[in-house]
Automatic annotation (TrEMBL):
Bias (Basic and acidic residues): 285-298
The protein, known as: ABC transporter ATP-binding protein
Keyword Repeat: yes
InterPro entries membership: AAA+_ATPase (IPR003593), ABC_transporter-like_ATP-bd (IPR003439), ABC_transporter-like_CS (IPR017871), ABCF (IPR050611), P-loop_NTPase (IPR027417)
Stretches assigned to the ABC transporter domain: 4-262, 356-572
Organism: Kitasatospora phosalacinea
Amino acid sequence: MTALLAHEVVRVLGGRRVLDGVSLTAAPGRRIGLIGENGCGKSTLLRVLAGVDEPDAGSVVRPADLGFLHQELPFDAGATVAAVLDGALREARTDLAELERLGAELAVLPEHDPSLPGLLAEYGQRLEQAEARGSWDADRRAALVLDGLGLSGLAPERVLGSLSGGQRGRLALAALLVRRPSAVLLDEPTNHLDDAAAAFLEAQLLALPGTVVVASHDRAFLEAVCTDLVDLDPAVGGPVRFGGGYLAYLAAKRAARARWERQHAEEQQELERLRHSAGVTAHRVAPDRGRTDNEKMGYGHRAGRVQQQVSRRVRDASRRLAELERAQVAEPPVPLRFAPPALVAGARAEEGSGPLPEDALLALRGVGVPGRLAPLSLELAADDRLLVTGGNGTGKSTLLAVLAGRLEAAAGGVVHRRPGLTVGLLAQDTVFARPDRTAAATYARAVGPERAERVPLSALGLLAAADLDRPVGALSVGQRRRLALALLVARPPQLLLLDEPTNHLSPLLCDELEEAIGAGGPGAVVVAGHDRWLRRRWRGRELELGTRPGVRPGTRSGVRPAAPAPDVPPDVRR
């Protein structure tokens, strides 16, 4: 096994320098996590490391046996589950077939045949490769991986177009784990994984002897798996590598930022002092400066010597000033800080609201969706904080779609809503009807000019100033999700529904979003998610959905929304 090496990699996309001289050494046995704000270049770096994209400058040395899982899956919608698994098992089966062929040739080859040494060397190389891949165990491993990722119930003849997005993502991950390459590159691998599947993935990666490089928002995953974290956010000397998991990174990140701010402030003070010193001294030595009274008596005697001393001080100060101006550290960029005016809006209690209590916004009575959601009853108060958990296929997304009014309840179930209730839904998939429009223009058209002026997109702390005028289609997946969140909080609804809200968001934004949700106050928030870090710190109510009759693990639980309005993505329509 060889190391994965990147040296001074530069990548320019859309006129923007996404990667600027990034170097990385990933030795076998190291599991490196790539973190940073959305749009900092994590996915771009993975694509360059994998050879999918070529760098504009710099070089990459990679092992020949490399596997890459990226966010846009490579499989055709018409391919079957069996075809995907056959492709994953092809290398192992080729190893075994070649060993059988070579063994048969060796069995009949005379002892003194001149081709014997070469044939033995080829057999030994193939045998070593098969052992490294675990080729004899590949079919059993495939069954274990499918079961571990919750896919054992998929029929081999199912076409990928009939699977949910989560199922397709898990199938691509399964195919990579079955292959067992010597270097693994993963882009957001824990999206769509429940607890059992995430724990299984962690165990698989911990057991790999080769290199692992992963871009992830999952703080629990980073803490459990990574030996090193590489922060791609701007820093004094470029990307910073931290040893340890997420908790160690947080402490080191804060300390590094404080050092940078302190160094910049001290240098600016020194620059100001040198400029003042050089300017004052130069004025004193200026040739047209008049002599003061106490200089006149000895001016002729001391003029030459004083002039030389003052000139030397001017030169020294100017030299130090020039050196410091060249070597000074850049000003630390203002970090993005999520600062919504409010996540949700309050709703006053209403008397005579029929079947609803005065402080309730919404109630479900025996509501279910056949094949997606088992019947349940639920009541949401005006200031509720509810976390919905459960394995894949238990109906979390379906429940949010029912609460949002996008999916009608089954016969026999009743949904009671407060009149005039405003609801906002952040769905898992963020799709904008006009990807050619800029983020700022999309925001202004969605929330209205007056609201956009009162609550500027730049003030929400979700997108950097440089990204506001970029087309939505050129933004990263995480940045598009940030924009969708901005459209919601710009006009806070009375009921905010968040489906896997931490997917694709940077870990630091996930922390800030959690703090905003947990702050309490008016309005109700319902979160559906697998995020283990969020769940450990949750302080509100919890609803765990389990397997019920009519709801099978692995069945599609997502909901296809109606066609979106021209400039409002379907996941933020009310």
